[in-house]
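Researcher: Structure for this, please.
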Amino acid sequence: MSPAADRPDDAPRGTLTVRTIAMPGDTNANGDIFGGWVMSRMDQAGGIAGVDRAQGRVVTIAVEAMTFFRPVKVGDVLSVYTAIESVGRTSMKIHVEAWAKRFRTTLHEKVTDASFTFVAIDEEGRPRPVPNSAEGGGP
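Model: Predicted structure, token format:
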């Protein structure tokens, strides 16, 4: 179970990084939003946080323990939050949570979370060092 599973689900962890609305074209045959669509938004948010921290290009190399707690429905506003968990020499682990504000309500529920690992790369696609946080780029 992810570290966030030990926390109450009443407040997101991290910084709001991506916010979008679930549309009818994003549904499966049951009318729920595809899990892959949610995961894509999470990868996008993690990439944004990774680029900010690494001060340059990053690539996703792993996703750990993604479990969907609740479905996302058409009309829900999906908010994706990110928090840097750890930074190595060329890689970083970023905690990503997806929350849904339910259509026509004020209900805000966590739908999934995961840890994404990104590697900083140079223009040739080779791993490069992640700058120290003292040089800018956040935690």
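Researcher: Any notable elements?
Model: The helical segments are 35-54. Residues 1-5 have pLDDT under 50 and may be disordered.
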